[in-house]
Design brief:
6-stranded antiparallel β-sheet; globular
């Protein structure tokens, strides 16, 4: 679910992932051998996504928040911030379309 952008070029979401789980999906098939995207680990919980041959550069920084408790269920909450660095709107749109397909959880 998106949250209000703190400044231009920033997109934020709260997601039902742990940081390690998010990193595994991001560095797995999403940016793997058959993907158009490449992922570089900048530091713990900070990655840079590029697309060779384009101007796409997106920094992703995550931080874990307190889990949500719903009855007996405890769900992780991860704050995910995307910093869009000099990236064309069409490249951003394609990136987020793919991102949402890979990171979607649950039914529907």
């Amino acid at each position: 679910m998106p949250t209000a952008a703190p400044e231009p070029g920033i997109v934020e979401y709260e997601m039902g992932y742990r940081a390690d789980e998010f990193g595994n999906v991001l560095t797995g098939a999403f940016t793997g051998e058959k993907s158009d995207y490449r992922c570089q680990l900048v530091s713990t919980c900070h990655w840079r996504i590029t697309q060779p041959g384009t101007t796409l550069i997106i920094d992703i920084v995550v931080s874990e928040k307190p889990p949500r408790k719903l009855g007996l269920f405890v769900l992780p909450v991860l704050q995910v911030q995307f910093q869009l660095l000099d990236t064309a709107a069409d490249l951003e749109a394609k990136f987020f379309e793919r991102f949402h397909k890979y990171f979607h959880k649950g039914g529907g």
